[in-house]
Amino acid sequence: MADETQVVVATGADVAHGAESGLVFHPMDQFLVKPIFGQAGDPVFWYTPTNVTLWLGLSVLAIFALMVLTTSRRSVIPSRGQSVAELSYGFIYKMVEDITGKEGLKYFPYIMTLFMFIVSANFLGLLPTAFTTTSHIAVTAVLGFAVFFAVTILGFVLNGFGFLGLFWVSSAPLALRPILAVIELISYFVRPVSHSIRLAGNMMAGHAVIKVFAAFAAVTAVAPVSVAAIAAIYGLEVLVCFIQAYVFTILTCVYLKDALHPAH
Amino acid sequence: MATEPIDLEAAGLCTDAYGSAIGMPQLCDAWFGNQIFWLLIALVVIYFILSRIALPRISAILSERQGTITNDIAAAEDLKAKAHEAEAAYDQALVDARLEAGRIIDAAKADMKADLEAAMKKADAEIAVRTAEGEKAIAEIREGALAAVKDVAKDTAKEIVAAMGGNADARTVTAAVNARMKG
């Protein structure tokens, strides 16, 4: 019985693999979670060191190298690495200050953590054969829901039930307010979903498209077009990597602003 | 990507017999726990790296730079003020020197004028003396000439009278000549 299913699955897989034809499409294989140690197909438990672990660790190392190693000389006239570190510091610091005001600055380290993690994971994912941790909904959902719960809890702690004023649009006509409250409430609860799917979707789509074009490169006739397309999409992905990190961070700041100043 | 058939039971339902993805690996809930676990660890580590080491350090660097810039600007303003002072002092010295030069010129002019006047006076006095002497000499000459003319006139008149056959009385002739000379 087990053998039979094996065979059926295997033949189905053969077709999908395109074992006979020249084209081999596996655009999603790059997103597989695999144990680093042991053989392919070994079970993945929650504590197993996987390629997720490896690339998360590399992100941590990259952040350490960028933010700590480059600034170790603390020079008044910065080196190139130090100015990048200072630039990213100033970029996020100003963003938090501009959007949430002075009161939001005590949450700056958390927002900086989010930004640095997303931006470094995104860019590391652009390395060939890399595993993009931020292309996984499990990862971005943790980030998105963490922001959502943090902001909601913070809103109630700081403002009490006044936080519900966020849903009561006092500038609208009274008759419209209940309807608007329902819409605001729905949009509020959709936030973590859109927040996390936006990031994961963008990262996954770009990488999958590159992989599809890479598969076409096996056909000699279209190979030049395919390689050019890969280069073009890669350039686009470089932009997307930064923009998505930026968007995630700035939305986090906007949500944080709601918690700090819930009145419309 | 494995090329050998693998143990499907162990790998879960997210890969096929060749280890390729079935559908979206992102939706494979068997891997969620692993991803979330390692992500939380990574986030905590990043948070501590940033909040304990990187952010205070960068903040210190930035404020130190701000301080240095502020100090430099203050020093530059000091130097600028000093330069202005020096310029003012230079201008003052220039004005003083001009005034001094003017004063010296005026004094020299006054001296020269005084000298000139003294010399002129002296010269005028001398001229006056000489003039007086000259006039005196002229007067003497004139008197001498008058006396000579009188004598010549008396003699001539005496001779004319004698030539005409008259007996010329010396006293009469003299009286007549004097009367004529007066007229």
UniProtKB/TrEMBL annotation, chain A:
Database matches in CDD domains: ATP-synt_Fo_a_6
Annotated Gene3D superfamilies: ATP synthase, F0 complex, subunit A (1.20.120.220)
Location of the protein in the cell: Cell membrane; Membrane
InterPro entries on file: ATP_synth_F0_asu, ATP_synth_F0_asu_AS, ATP_synth_F0_asu_bact/mt, F0_ATP_A_sf
Listed transmembrane segments: 52-70, 107-131, 137-158, 165-190, 210-231, 238-257
Record's bilayer topology term: Multi-pass membrane protein
Keywords: ATP synthesis, Cell membrane, CF(0), Hydrogen ion transport, Ion transport, Membrane, Transmembrane, Transmembrane helix, Transport
PANTHER family linked: ATP SYNTHASE SUBUNIT A
Function of the molecule: Key component of the proton channel; it plays a direct role in the translocation of protons across the membrane.
Annotated family: Belongs to the ATPase A chain family.
Protein name from the UniProt record: ATP synthase subunit a
Automatic annotation (TrEMBL), chain B:
Transmembrane annotation, as ranges: 36-55
Location in the cell: Cell membrane; Endomembrane system
Location, primary (coarse class): membrane
Entry annotated with the keyword Transmembrane: yes
Membrane topology category: Single-pass membrane protein
Sorted UniProt keywords: ATP synthesis, Cell membrane, CF(0), Hydrogen ion transport, Ion transport, Membrane, Transmembrane, Transmembrane helix, Transport
Pfam family, one: ATP-synt_B
Entry-linked Gene3D superfamilies: 6.10.250.1580
Family: Belongs to the ATPase B chain family.
Quaternary structure and interacting proteins, as annotated: F-type ATPases have 2 components, F(1) - the catalytic core - and F(0) - the membrane proton channel. F(1) has five subunits: alpha(3), beta(3), gamma(1), delta(1), epsilon(1). F(0) has three main subunits: a(1), b(2) and c(10-14). The alpha and beta chains form an alternating ring which encloses part of the gamma chain. F(1) is attached to F(0) by a central stalk formed by the gamma and epsilon chains, while a peripheral stalk is formed by the delta and b chains.
Primary role: Component of the F(0) channel, it forms part of the peripheral stalk, linking F(1) to F(0). The b'-subunit is a diverged and duplicated form of b found in plants and photosynthetic bacteria.
Xref: NCBIfam families: PRK13454.1
Entries under HAMAP family matching the protein: ATP_synth_b_bprime
Descriptive protein name: ATP synthase subunit b
Organism for this UniProt entry: Pseudosulfitobacter koreensis
Source species taxonomy: Bacteria, Pseudomonadati, Pseudomonadota, Alphaproteobacteria, Rhodobacterales
Gene: atpF
